[in-house]
Amino acid sequence: MTEETKTHWLFKCYGNGGMLFLRLWLGIAMIVHGYNSVIGGEMHGFIEYLESFQIPAPELMAWLAKGSEFFGGVLLVIGLFSKVSALFILVTMSVATFIVHEGALIGTAGELTWCYLLISIAILIQGSGKISLDHFIFKKKTLVNT
What we know:
Blueprint lengths: L14 H24 L4 H9 L6 H21 L3 H19 L9 H17 L6 H13 L1
Helix pairs in contact: 1-3, 1-5, 2-3, 3-4, 4-5
């Protein structure tokens, strides 16, 4: 190997592993946030919380938000329909960031919702990466059709 073809490990791109970690982090976090409401029977408390912000149709919005978190999180972890899941989580985190936390950034409770929102955007832009069911299922079909 000549000196010109060597690339130092610091400058190599490991994008698929990076997307895997982002997808897993966001997916697990969303499962944890949505589980108690969707599976654990604690949705009533979240509905009351949304009512305090005068969110219209709080019961419907609560189920949509927590359903997006829980089921979107599960889909992100397995890497299936990742962009759709990220879109639903992005909408949920946008409401949490801009309505509940009033867009507050660093050093506030809104900081975490900003992180979730930005990771969702990254997954929407980049996709789930090669280490995912999306890649396994949909890339193979695309290659066969060409």
